[in-house]
Structures
1.
Amino acid sequence: MDETTRWRLMVTLSRRDALKLALLGAGAWMLTPIWARGKKMPMPDFPTGERLGRVCIGGKVEVKARPDADSPTVAVLYEDAVVPWEREVVGINLHRTNQRFVQTPQGYIWAPTLQPVANKPNTPLTAFPYAKDGMWVEVTVPYVDIFLANPPARSPWLKDTSRPRLYYSQVLWVDQIKQGDDGAVWYRINERYGSYGDIFWARAEAFRPITPEEIAPISPNVENKRVVVDVNYQTMACYEGKEEVFFTRVSTGAKYNASGQAVDKWATPVGTYPIWRKLISVHMSGGTTGGGYDLPGIGWTVLFVGTGISIHSTFWHNDYGVPRSHGCVNARPEDAKWVFRWTLPVVPYDPGDVTIGMPGGTLIEVVEG
């Protein structure tokens, strides 16, 4: 084709054809992996401080002049806002069980609405140190944006958000490592258990590799272990024989839904159950529209009822001591991890999942005070 013919084709291109070509180009760019696009994408600039808090509920959170829900509002924050966590104090919030407030430079925030977080970026790895096909990682920054590698979205939570993120303390499986032209390292997140099939890319600095040593069993040779969950007092205790070796507050099955209606089906079932499955991380979903849930990266999961009831890590609230789950036992990440390591069966690093038959593992006793 000579230059004259080529020029004629270009000038006679219709607006519709030009738009098609533009869309094709944009589509090709979108299909390019995020790490290969050559566009610098810096990590978020979080506040400084040893301890931070992330607004972990939808809608707005009011910052109060005093640790009193009826005191003047001095500022308003929205979901995923991150603030310095100076200290926790006891205040006044009538008609609420939790009376804790977090003091921040701006004022006081009701503690259940703030997830305790930290900003601890990591040096990216270029190879998997502990298993041939991947590694377990934990998010160690308040949040990290993730980018879908295999659209369209499949998970309900992913379809309902325009800003997909992972949050502090979530546990995921990484199965690929790539470095972009700008030098940034990206991890490919591919959930091993419970996934709808979505795969993501995320900046590697946000994730701390979990070592096999830190999931090693605690007191594995001790007999007569049992976990007691009290749904009246919202507590969890671990016993070796008659000696209590661990105690914490938890959140068990909610008694009421968001509309204030009684919901018996969310109750954590009272009784004694052996652990039948444990997973380092799992994608959890269930329920129905409006009352359902869909949550990726749930760490340190200990299943003890066949319907899926478990003890597990929690990142979406800080309201321990109050019933608010769909039947599971919500625990702080560090508490869930301790129970995961202390109970039987033992879970190997790879594959990070164990299922056993009867008589099962450590007994979980769910009691009513």
2.
Amino acid sequence: MSDILKWGILGCSKFALEHMLPAMQLAKNNKCIAIATSDTLKAKPFLEINSDINIYNDYNDLLNDINVDAVYIPLPNHLHVEWTKRAILAGKHVLCEKPIALNAKDIDELIKLRDQSGLLVAEAYMILHHPQWSYAKKLLKSGAIGNLVQVDGVFSYNNANDSNNIRNHSISGGGSLLDIGVYTFGSTRFMTDEDPEKITQTSINWENDVDVWSSVSAQFQTFKFLGVTSMRMHPRQEMNFHGSDGLIRLTSPFNPQVFGEAEVHFFSGKEMQSIKKFTTENHYVKQLETFYSTISTGSEYICNLEFSKGTQQMIDMVFEHEASSKL
């Protein structure tokens, strides 16, 4: 392939404008060359960032552009599987926003299409590209905190006054678990290389068939997990890995560019032993650079579809547990 991965974006989402297009401008070996939107007026702010972008008013026209190597999909959640399939069949590599599917079984077909095509298809799970996570995992695996006993995490924000937000609509695959539960669940699985054996407790608040707050407890093979996600609380994010001899805390684990400087705190004995700060890292840029290098070298992608399926399976287990508890 060429030394530039040429991207097309499906839709003019706010997230694509604020995070992914700027990242494509900064990332080595990456460039956005096309955007498809049903409303060309929405493309105007994108053109203010990069005036060379081609604008299509039909998604399929972008997929048929032979100059586009890869497609980024930030569409509403319920459209992710459909357009990921179409992009693969058009011969494009795909980076799709999370959740890439609304249930785990739908990811199986994406895995099959990926394997048949030889293309790179992945969920845009940007956090694993931030070096704080590889640092924290190395610390955990070193035995620095002894035996891992409990993992607890929280991710919250408040969009109660944003009635047009797709996260507040069940028809578009909204809800806090699909939107941000993927981070507390997935980061736990990444750090420990374990999957939950069972969900032991769920408590969910619903508004118009959308989960707006949840508390989830789970039993993994060697530790217990407790996670809280909410779209109705003051913004907060934190992950703690609590062992018999110490504690690892990530103070801004999921979107440090927005929430604050990423730090990994290590406690042992009666005091904090170290603070590792990550001041200038942009995980969106690193995600794109890793995507390119994976394609060019054939190396294994850190967040493959199998990993995404495992996290979605945990979300499916939560909803199944909640439904059975109401019987």
3.
Amino acid sequence: RPYIYYLNCYRIAPGNVDFTFKFYHQVSLGAARNNILFSPLCISNALSMLMLGAKHHTLSQLLSGLSFNQTEVSEQEIHEGFSNLLDLLNDPLNEIELNIGNALFIDEEMKPLKKFLHDAKHFYKSDISHTDFKNSKQAEEQINRYIEKKTNGQFVDVIRDLETDVLMVLVNYMFMKAYWKNPFSFKNTREDYFFVDEQTTVKVPMMFRNALYKTYKDTDLSCQLVEIPYKGTTSALFILPEPGKMKQVEDALEQGILSKWLHSFEEQRINLHLPRFTIHTKYVLRGLLRRMGITEIFTDEADLSGITGKPELKVSKAIHQVYLRVHENGTEAASTVVTEIVPNARPHIIKFNRPFIVIVFESLSRSILVMGRITNPKETESHY
């Protein structure tokens, strides 16, 4: 790919990373003991698409909330950056199946402007559909059918209880399949204890692999890090705070810390124990985004006149859903069992048997695809 592709991605990367940690902090405030999982790229991609139609203070709020500084990156560069990033992530050479998208469902009496339709499709590959919101049941079925089809049946009945005065619904979704570069062996997975907190212990299937991994021990923040690569250019960064140190690590999360970690890794042979888990989360974004300063798009003060040419449009509902399954092959599909050869030397043991943080990132574009906190691997569904 031409270098300009990567340059455009790099321009939006700092803002996207800042947005990731800002969003994580907001979610964690209301979910002290719950699992957290979201796709920052998915959310920022959808909100940046709305910027195509936002004007005046509504536009300024979106730029600020998404951590984009207009003295460093222009609106045009933001849109080109997301367009190139989606192309890059969907490239077959990347070796992951990433289904990331968003859609606008607009009341059938509203007519989107040709420029908005063109730009939303051109930059964001976005679908825009007319919907009869006065027939709320039919509208719900239309939106839910769309999401179910786009996510291969992974998400069903996302939208419920739509009101009849809705003018626009924004839906974004993310589904990822990726194979570990070096899979875990199924025969090494054992039932083991996971210490949720001082009072709660659960039994989980604990995967095991003895191998060379990039690791780093951050003594300042009292946490251990392991990077596990997928095939292609994507990796998962697992962060294991020492007991009682989760909040200390969470409070320190920002761009500089992530950069420090990624530049501090050294390859080391370890005995890695990692729980197999499946997490499915659903967020109603309105409250979270409002706390991040993005308020107008949900109110009558919204100026989204670049979408239809009329000022009365606002976002009635914004839903975000993510599904992540971590298991022996790192993917949804079954694969061959790999037999591990374990040497005689006693390697360092890193055991993820207490709450930890996971960050899935793509290295070429410097993009965070998924971020989460696994507090209890047995708790498969969370709603916020």
